[in-house]
Amino acid sequence: MSPQTHIDERGHVHGVNPGTELGRYTLEARIEEIRGGERWTARDSTLERDVSLLVMPIDAEETDAALDAARRAANVEAPQLVRILDVGSDGSDYSFIAEDGVSGSRTLGEVIGTDALPAEEVRRITGEIATGVEGARARGLHHLGLSPEHVLITPDGRIKVRGLATTAALAGIETEGEEADREDARAIVALAYAGLTATWPLEGTTSLPATPREGGEVPPPSRGVVGVPGDLDTICRETLVEDQGPESPGDYAAQIAPWSRIPLTGAVRTTGGAGESTSKRADGARGTGADKDAGRGATGAAAGAGAAAGAGATRGGDAATGSAAGSTSEEPETSEIPIHRGDSASEKSRDEDSHEARRRTAAAAAAAAGAVGTAGTVVGDRLGKAAKTAQERSRQRIIDARLRREAIRADQRTRSSLGAAPVSAELEAPAPLLPTDAGASPSRSQSNLVMLLMVCIVLVACVGGAFGVTKIGDGSQLGKILAGGDPVAASTPSSSSSGDGDSDKKDSSEDGHEPFAILGAVGYDPDGDTVEHNAEAPLVYDGDPDTMWQTEGYESSSFVLKSGAGVTVDLGQTQDVSSVTLDLPESLDGNVYVADGPTHEQGELGSFSNESGEVTIDSDDAIQGRYVTVWFTSLAPDDEGRYRASLSEITVR
């Protein structure tokens, strides 16, 4: 007996437990609950491997959209994305998406914990994320749900992003085009902000605390963190505060490049508690031996300073002071000189030796102090120069990033994508009719000549207009039109010939009706995510048979989880439709419907079965409607091993 499926108010799945078998997968432990499903670790009993399984109720509203998104995401190959291995269902209660099991990995939120990451590690992590998401964008897919919980970091520091397209499908998000590009770029900038500040700047709940606002706005990272690079700080401010910043994941990657592919040693821990500080993680990479040798390190540093002082004294050229640097080793010899009490000469010699020793010790101390002061000055100068050089490099880096950003945006503005308005080149202002120095007033004879020419032009125009008015209505049945009679279709010279029956002298339609104008087109997918390559839909009436609209790619020649998909064209107003001509690149099955809205349930004009090329569907009785829907019920194989339905052109009469 199969378990009972039910969903709470947030769309979470109930009724699955460790040990539940879904097809060839056996659930082991639940990883997390997300909107519309649960993610579990599971065991693939067929291939004997560990996987991650996203489990969803088969009857949930968004499940079909998530499965379709997963099938499309499985075709994207990028090392930064978690691979989708399988999509299916147990046949009655649950559907699932099998993902590659990234064992031992931790989410970005767990790695960040309560401490910020080093800036260059943030650059590496977000750069890899942007590269993977940009690869998906090139295939027409977006993430639209990036958060620290969707980014995984493996034990060896590799970056993996999960939930491509499926997270948005489960949440009912249908953003497309430039808006979707911008949304993913904004989320990646938010991940960079989170890595620098250990807070989350966008709306929504994550494992990180929300960023405290200043005057209702997100403060730049440099406001509370020391050492934030200028380019990252600028991108965060422009994106999260000024609503500018990168326009796509690729734009972001270009602005922060280059970054190291190798993680910083000790910068990111993939084991242990999330609350340990970044400094402790870095010390852990060096080992505890550094703490044990702290005393010896301090002693060694002091000894080195003393040696430097002695060397500085010797370099100073003072032979006496230089020899005094070794007075510590000579004092035992002085103390071993025999002293004869009561001998005045010996007493005097001893006093002189003691005085000389004190003088030498004082000279050595003065030389050491001078050497330390000189060394401090040199170190200070070098640090100042290094800081100045670093500041100049940071400033130049910001300038270079802005130049790259402007170049990328300029390149994107010159490209046109499906569904986007054509880009027109800026036209140079017209040259003046007269040179700038022609400021003298015309003579009286010139003025009279211009007036005469203007009068002649007006007279000619009036005569031509009067003659044209007398010809209005010639050759037409204006009386019937004004009297409200039946409208008469306009005829062309070829269709008004002597009636010899030649088809090449008639209109392209057998009944002679002009085709209706089409104002727009959109993909029609009522059983799926309601979006079926909408951006390509206008290609069905662009007049070019070499361009076409296609459905999304499917696994077989028939729709498994839905009854079909299609495309709908808008005639602008209700028309009497009696004929529809389709240009089909492949042999397909389907129906044509005419109604006041997109539909595949009423207003059927006709059907076609296993037909290709130019196919005409006629009906003796015209059907009234504004929208014409071509509904495909079969698919044809494409060059990529998938199955799709295609339509090159549609003509409605």
The strand count comes to 19
Count of domains = 4
Strand order of the largest sheet: 3-4-5-6-8-7
Helix content: 25-40%
The largest β sheet comes out as:
6 strands, antiparallel
Strand content: 15-25%
- Protein structure class: alpha+beta
CATH topology of the largest domain: Transferase(Phosphotransferase), domain 1
Report mean pLDDT, rounded to a whole number: 76
Unreliable stretches (pLDDT < 50, length at least 5) are 1-6, 269-350, 371-376, 415-427, 480-510
Q: Do you know the CATH architecture of the largest domain?
A: Orthogonal Bundle
Please tell me about this protein's structure.
The protein is α+β, with helices and mostly antiparallel strands. The chain has 4 domains: 6-100, 2-Layer Sandwich (Phosphorylase Kinase, domain 1), CATH 3.30.200; 106-286, Transferase(Phosphotransferase), domain 1; 355-415; 520-652, Jelly Rolls (Sandwich), CATH 2.60.120.260. It is 36% helix and 20% strand. It has 15 helices and 19 strands. The protein has helices at residues 63-73, 108-112, 119-137, 166-171, 177-197, 230-240, 249-256, 278-286, 289-292, 294-315, 319-324, 327-335, 344-413, 444-470, 478-482, and strands spanning 6-7, 13-14, 21-22, 25-34, 37-44, 49-57, 84-89, 94-100, 106-107, 151-153, 159-161, 520-524, 549-550, 565-595, 604-632, 636-637, 643-644, 646-647, 649-652. The strands form 6 sheets. Strands 3-4-5-6-8-7 form a 6-stranded antiparallel beta sheet, covered by helices on one side. Strands 12, 14, 15 and 19 form a 4-stranded antiparallel beta sheet that branches. A 3-stranded antiparallel beta sheet has the order 9-10-11. Helix 3 runs antiparallel to helix 5 (177-197) and helix 10 packs across helix 13 (344-413). The longest helix is centred in the middle third of the chain and has 70 residues, at 344-413. It is flat, with a radius of gyration of 41 Å. The model is unreliable at 1-6, 269-350, 371-376, 415-427 and 480-510 (pLDDT under 50).
